[in-house]
Structures are given as structure tokens and as C-alpha cells.
Amino acid sequence: MKMVHFDGFQFVDGGITAPKGFKAAGLHCGIRANKTKKDLGLLTTSTPVPTAAVYTQNKVKGAPITVTKAHLANGYAQAVVVNSGIANTCNADGIEKAEAMCQVAAQALDIRPDDMVVASTGVIGQPLPIEPVEAGMPGLVEALSVTGGGDFAEAIMTTDTVRKEVAVEFVLDGHRIRIGGCAKGSGMIHPNMATMLCFLTTDADITPDLLQLALKRVVDDTFNMVSVDGDTSTNDTCCIMASGEADNDPIIDQDEHFELFVNGLYVALMNLSRMIAADGEGATKLMECVVTGGESMEQAKIVAKSIICSSLMKAAIFGADANWGRALCAIGYAPVDVAVDRVEMSFSSEAGTVLVCQDGAGVEFSEERAKAVLSQDEVKILINLHSGESSAVAWGCDLTYDYVKINGDYRT
Q: How far is CA 176 from CA 24, 165, 173, 181, 380, in A?
């Protein structure tokens, strides 16, 4: 899919290992039955570095989240170990297995187990065997490379159909800074913090507290504005590590250098958000809802997300049906006050833009032209609330027959 570019920020190759100071690897160790699917990944730095993370708000949480939170209490980590295929959630021995994964990886890397971040994704309630992790770890460590980001990205995939990677470069304080990352997410996507799993790296020199602040701020405007199916995962984790090897003056205040770093992180996470929405289970189209004229940022965000979460609107987009009333309905039940009689709505894509609603009422438009607009791979729903200056963007996908097929036999 097309990347969204911003002035001053350049996309580069390499994904999670594009920033200086990181190596990664991924392979099949045997957790998943399909031997063509990588299921174990490792990301490392040479020393413990500032690390921040945000997690799911689901009351049911995967055991790896409990372990990672404890390990990141001091704001530092040196490596990430992650498996796909089994979520290690709702298991009596979950904490024990998550700690064991850290122990196995740390011993192979000759580092402290509490400097490990651990994550898992896959089927909930199925015990995680530690034996494949133990057997695969020597080969995984041997495969660590500055070009291993793609293999790591594959190792975290479940029903994803494509790798989701990004790397952004920009100049800060006269130094070239890079932010790289990869994410997995296709179903069970309705985050209250991030996507199912996302791992980020940067070579910027920044304090742990400011790294955490930057991550939370940007996640609120990106991953928290994505929905595929309305289901919030139990294992959502978004983690970022900062090697400091770009040699910039340390970012220690919320100054212009911090804001530039935040902007760079937004470029990375916004594009990953689009990738996740576009690769929703069974999806054929990316939906982007752009709300302007909001009386507050909160109002604009709530309206945007209400529209991209509407199953009826998602189905209409799948059928290229300009049933704009479904979007207006979603605005009406959104948990926020809206002056409905001021709402203006258009559909837009590479095929053009068509106005369908003004002042909360329908206007005449060509159904044929609207169908052409809605038949593109990327469709925008443009909403102007005409109530203020705030704006927000949310991303989703269409709802297709294949979504039910995929989730009807997910475990088999």
C-alpha cells in the first residue's frame, strides 16, 4: 500500500533494524505446526537502553504483559523475545512460561533475564510449550543480524497476509535520527493502547521518561484510532527501545527536539496504523475517516472512530454502496454531543470526491460516480462538523465474507 509522506521525513529500508545499534532474527522453532511460518523472534542491543511500552486495557491480559511490566519498571531493556501461534493467555503456568522464555533468551545472549521484554500472540487458552523455544534459541541467536528485521517481522505474524514494517529518517540537532518498527495485527483489532503487537527502535538519545511520554502521545493519535472488528486483544503490547547511537544531544526536556522526535514517531506509527487497517482479516479496502470542524479533539476522535467501527458502514464500503446514512447514524450514537444539523459528508478516493450530505441532510449526487469512488482500494469518509477547529483521523477496513470464514476456523 502507499506510504503517507511528510516534509522533512524520509522513508528508508531496514524496518526495525534500520536505526543504529540493533540486530534481529526470526525463525520457525516448532510452536506453530506449519513449518513455513516463522514463530520465534529476537531483537537485541549491545547494552540495556531506555525502553518504553504501552499495553492492552483488556481486563484479561496475557502473562507476557505482567512479566514485561515488571522488567521495565526501571525504564531499561536490552532484548525482546516474542513468539507467535500461542498467546500464553489464561494459562495457569503463563507467568512461569513467560519468565522461562526470558531466561532461555537471556542465557543464550549472556544478559540479565530482567533486561528482557517478552511478548506472545496467537490462540488464547492454549498452553505454551517451552521446549521449542529452548531448541530454537541457539539458531535464533546465531542468526541475529542488522538485516534481520524482516525475519523478525514475519515471526510475529498470525493471520496477517503481509509484513508490516517502516523506517523513518530525519535530522535532529544536526544528526540523522532513525525510527524503525514492525507490527502485527489483522484481527481482534480495536486497541485501547496499541495494536496486537508492535516493536519500535530508534537511535535517538532520549530519556526513558520522555520516551514513554512520546510513545503514549503518538499511540493515542494512531494505533488507538484503528479498528478492524471491535475486539480488543488480551496481548496488545507496543514497545520502543532507544539505542542513543545517533549521538544527538540527549533529549531531556519537552522542547523543540522532543517535538520533532514525536513527529517522527507519528510518521512511523501512522503508516503502521494504515497497514494494520488495510490488512484487516478478509479486508479488500482501507477506510480512512477524516473529521474536521470539531469543537474539541475528543469530539473529533470519538466521531471518527464511531464511523469506522460501524459494521453497517464497513459492509457498505465493501459493496461500494454510498449508503451515507449509516455514517450519519454512527455519528448519532457516538457517545458525544454533535450538532447533527451542521454535519457535512463526502466520500473520496483516487477516483474523485462526491458530496453526499450537507447540513445533516442528503444532497443529490450521481450513484454511478459514487460507486466509482467507493470501488478503490483506499476510501476516505470526510466529515466536517462545522463546530470548531479540531480534527482527527481514524482507520478501518471493509467487512467481507472472508472475515467470518477466517474466524470461523481460526484454531484449525
A: 21, 20, 8, 17, 34
